[in-house]
Prior knowledge:
By secondary structure, the protein is mainly α. 59% of the residues lie in helices and 6% in strands. It has a two-stranded antiparallel sheet. Helix 2 crosses helix 5 (107-127) and helix 3 packs across helix 4 (73-85).
Amino acid sequence: MSMDMTTAGDTGLLELMQHQVALFARRAEQTRLGGTGQHRNSMDRAAYLLLNRLDHEGPMGVKALAAGMGIDSSTVTRQVAPLVDSGLVKRTSHPDDGRAVVLELSPRGHARLTQVRASRRTLMAELTEDWDESEREQFCTLLTRFNTALSSRQHTTGPGGTPDANGEG
């Protein structure tokens, strides 16, 4: 498929789509989709995504965590440091190689993540209270598909859409 997929008929729709995505990104960052109540805006996006991955996938090293999130190890190290300092993440020795460090969600981190998830679910329910179940499912399906496409693009191009180090993209 051609890189220039716009035609006279869909240019307006693609323009509207990119504008709505830009608005969504700004509004999501402004609110951090932080939920409701006392946990509103209480956890930044990076912390949420790191804690969520550790919760779903279990203890892992920095390199595995970075690879799974599509970011570099130095970024993960920088983002994990305050989570360790606040007791949300524990650093432990790898069971097979005592020299290697494994990151693990602490009981405090699990409790905090549970609170934030509940708060964010409440926010999602409020924002979509006039949607029926099929509309929520359709939105999730399309947003997941969009995020997957963005992730695939990130893996084949560098920042700004330039070919990555392997010359792909």
